[in-house]
Amino acid sequence: MNTGAAQTALPRALAKTPEWRNVDAATFRNEIVPRDRPAILKGLIADWPVVQAAKQSPHALHDYLRARDQGQPTQTYVASSDIKGLFFYRDDMTGLNFERVQQPFHATVAAILAQMERSDAPAIYAPAAPAALLPAFAYENRLEILAADITPRLWAGNAVTAATHYDMSDGVACVAAGRKRFTFFPPEQLPNLYIGPLDLAPGGLPTSLVQVAAPDFARYPRFAEALAAAEVAELEPGDAVFIPNMWWHNVVSLDTLNLLVNYWWYDAARGPASPFAALAMGLMAVTPLSPGRREVWRRMFDHYVFQTGGDPVPYLPPDKRGMLGAMDPRLESYMRTQIVRALTKTLPRDQREQIQRWVAAAKPVGNSDPE
Fold first, then answer.
1. What gap in Å lies between CA 208 and CA 319, rounded to an integer?
2. 364 to each of 81, 325, 368, how far by Cα in Å?
3. Which ranges in the chain belong to alpha helices (H)?
4. What pLDDT does residue 328 have?
5. Contact between 177 and 257 (Cβ < 8 Å)
């Protein structure tokens, strides 16, 4: 699954992601985001100090980051050269093909620099490091098209690949150093992407088993349909790309030192619980039912959750709709309690009651996690 010669070329020509230039906040908000499709934002961050440092040399980039790094550890993925830069599942699907270590962000960049001339360099990747670890970074490198309270995360690596996955928040990914290639698949291509185990994924989110640069069409024949619907974005340092939530994307770093800065946010209304957690609950509660009972519950979900027929209770006044009404702290607490009772009913009584007391006492805080 992850052996053989390294491959970065795509197996066929794909449609190009549309490119926008001279993007300001109004254009981004009023024209690009409503399209709900990926968009290249050409030269958006070309004047950032970190981009200018990277253009000087790899060592100048490291010095820039080290001068601002407070030295707190962050997670770094490390693997042998055998994985060819693809952080992925093991061949036997018993785990992942890399190890995790904790070290300062600038130390990861230094490790990449130390291995740059080696043909057998290990794969090194620091994902989603909070920019708060480098307090001056966000102030000096400001993304003007987004609100100031949307905080950046930093990603550093050598010639690595992030396997095809989605994000549950909208995002802008900014290329500060190295070249990147994003291959995008629309959300409706899910059945053609052959997703791996939902509870085991390289980046923590559902991930495709198909290697985009070397697809095994005999094993994954429907992936040809996904490729027919795909598009590709080639980014240079100083470029950025808008990634709408739930669009699948594969990310290839084409150089031996890469730095990406990304921002996540969610504009639409979203409740205090994770949709992915609801999927997990559905797999536990609905999937084991008989086909006939699953069909009954599919109709129930269509009516109440997806509301395919419109408002499911137009005959009830707003203050009498209960769980189908506007969310407030009291209602959120009640719903959380019901969910916890269902999940803990098989635990010993003392454990079950303790957990339920904790949940009942917790103050609802909403969903601040970008995922």
1. 44
2. 46, 17, 11
3. 25-27, 49-56, 58-68, 105-114, 135-140, 223-229, 275-285, 291-304, 329-344, 349-361
4. 86
5. yes
Judged against a pLDDT cut of 60, whether residue 4 lies above it is answered with: no
Identify which of 161, 157, 162, 152 has the alpha carbon closest to the alpha carbon of residue 178: 157
- State the Cα torsion 13-17-19-23 to the nearest 10°: -160
For residue 121, the 8-state DSSP code is P
Residue 227, both tokens: 């490729």
Element (H, E) at 124: strand 123-130
pLDDT at residue 370, rounded to an integer = 38
β pairing state of 248-253 and 161-165: antiparallel
Q: Which of 83, 76, 80, 81 is nearest to 211 (CA)?
A: 83
DSSP classification of residue 351:
H
pLDDT (mean) for 73-87: 96
> How far apart, in whole angstroms, are the C-alpha atoms of residue 311 and residue 304?
8
Residue 235 contacts residue 179 (beta carbons within 8 Å)? yes
Q: Which of 95, 94, 153, 147 is nearest to 127 (CA)?
A: 153
141: how many CB neighbours lie within 10 A of its CB? 19
The number of C-alpha atoms within 13 Å of 224 and in the hemisphere containing its C-beta is: 6
Do 151 and 141 contact (CB within 8 A), yes or no? no
Q: Which domains does the chain have, with CATH numbers?
A: 15-265 (2.60.120.650), 275-361 (no CATH)
pTM: 0.88
